[in-house]
Amino acid sequence: MAIVELAPRALNKFHSITEYLLEVSPDKDAPKKFAQLIRTALDDLANNPFMAGFSSIIGEGKYRELTVKATKARAYRLLYKYDEKQNLVTVLAMKDAREQGYEGYF
């Protein structure tokens, strides 16, 4: 099982999405559901770091991108890299799947 860590920018994005859901969602449990969804995705990455394909947007084979479906209309993308020697998954970015590119993330 790999170790999974969130880079500071990914962690900040996680918190901003959680705060946004708290403010706008009619479902008071939405932030908790989002956190559980991401936690499950991170657990899946720990068990299988190769589960997602390489990103076609950035990195030319250096980074992988996992799409995490939240609802019919909402999904999130986790951009990560896997260091096999250290058995370490580092989530570099987290974003709404509708956002284009990773400008401002690096």
Broad structural category: alpha+beta
What's the overall geometry? globular
Strand order of the largest sheet: 1-4-3-2
> From the 3D coordinates, which CATH architecture would you assign?
2-Layer Sandwich
Query: Tell me, what is the CATH class?
Result: Alpha Beta
CATH homologous superfamily name?
RelE-like
Oligomer: single chain
Contiguous runs where pLDDT drops below 50 for at least 5 residues: none
Look at the structure and give the mean pLDDT. Answer: 92
Number of helices: 2
Quote the distance from N terminus to C terminus: 27 Å
Q: What is the number of E strands?
A: 4
Helix percentage range: 25-40%
In brief, what are we looking at here?
With 106 residues, the protein is α+β, with helices and mostly antiparallel strands. The chain has helices at 8-24, 30-47, and strands at 3-6, 64-69, 75-83, 88-96.
Task: Provide a descriptive summary of the structure in words.
By secondary structure, this protein is an alpha+beta fold. The protein has a single domain (3-96), classed as YaeB-like fold (2-Layer Sandwich), CATH 3.30.2310.20. The protein contains two helices and four strands. It has a four-stranded mixed sheet. α1 (8-24) packs antiparallel against α2 (30-47). The longest helix is centred in the middle third of the chain and has 18 residues, at 30-47. The radius of gyration is 14 Å and the shape is globular.
